[in-house]
């Protein structure tokens, strides 16, 4: 008998497969990124069915709300030559098809395994006050604290490496020396110049002088 949870699961699974196929078959990169957003939402719905609400919300907030928005900005700002991208498609298609076949075979082997089938048959129903976020935090900071810290160190190293790769020495780049700005003094920025005063000719006297010279001529 088909329950509501089963129907919703198959619906989200079909959307995920369709969105994943459209990501690799869409001609427009913007459309491919939008289909990837749809795939993320579908997977978040499946995680909600598995009572993994923390992972579902994290997927929506981090990947859809931040990463995919960045991807869309980059794709729309870059002038992507679609003709050049499609030049090597059929040349690498056999290798891609072989890798896809290997992945499908591995998934069928895992899902068809007797131990996996027996484990998946026993679905644990938790109480209404069960918190997946609390259970996940307990496992991360007790049983998996060292892998969690190792992952944090790897991410920190990746961030530092990305920043170091972008900070290349360029002659045209303008940089500010903070130490020099802090050590600056008044005499380095302001210079007082003493200039002798000069007599200024009033502009009002010019018409009077012109009129006097005209009277002398007459």
Task: Describe the structure using short key phrases.
mainly alpha, 218 residues, Four Helix Bundle (Hemerythrin (Met), subunit A)
Distance between the termini: 125 Å
Radius of gyration from the CA trace? 36 Å
User: What proportion of the residues form beta strands (DSSP E)?
Assistant: under 5%
Structural class: mainly alpha
Segments where pLDDT lies below 50 for 5+ residues?
none
Query: Which second-level CATH architecture of the domain at 1-79 applies?
Result: Up-down Bundle
Number of helices: 11
Tell me, briefly, the overall form: elongated
- Overall pLDDT score: 79
Main beta sheet: none
* Oligomeric description of these chains: single chain
Residue share in helices? over 70%
Order of helices and strands: HHHHHHHHHHH
Fourth-level CATH superfamily of the domain at 1-79: NADH-ubiquinone/plastoquinone oxidoreductase chain 6, subunit NuoJ
The total count of strands amounts to: 0
CATH class of the domain at 1-79: Mainly Alpha
* CATH third-level topology of the domain at 1-79: Four Helix Bundle (Hemerythrin (Met), subunit A)
């Amino acid at each position: 008998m088909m329950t509501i949870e089963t129907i919703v699961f198959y619906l989200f699974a079909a959307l995920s497969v369709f969105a994943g196929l459209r990501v690799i078959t869409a001609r427009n990169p913007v459309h491919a990124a939008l289909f990837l957003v749809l795939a993320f939402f579908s997977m978040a719905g499946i995680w909600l069915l598995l009572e993994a609400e923390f992972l579902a919300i994290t997927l929506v907030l981090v990947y859809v709300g931040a990463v995919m928005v960045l991807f869309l900005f980059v794709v729309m700002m870059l002038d992507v030559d679609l003709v050049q991208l499609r030049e090597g498609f059929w040349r690498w298609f056999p290798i891609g098809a072989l890798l896809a076949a290997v992945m499908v075979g591995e998934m069928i082997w895992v899902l068809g395994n007797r131990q996996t089938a027996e484990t998946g048959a026993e679905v644990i129903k938790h109480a209404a006050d069960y918190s997946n976020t609390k259970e996940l935090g307990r496992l991360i900071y007790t049983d998996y604290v060292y892998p969690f810290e190792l992952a944090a160190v790897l991410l920190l190293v990746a961030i530092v490496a990305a920043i170091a790769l972008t900070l290349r020495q360029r002659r045209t780049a303008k940089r500010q020396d903070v130490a020099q700005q802090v050590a600056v003094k008044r005499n380095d920025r302001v210079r007082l110049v003493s200039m002798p005063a000069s007599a200024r000719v009033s502009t009002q006297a010019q018409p009077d002088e012109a009129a006097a010279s005209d009277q002398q001529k007459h």
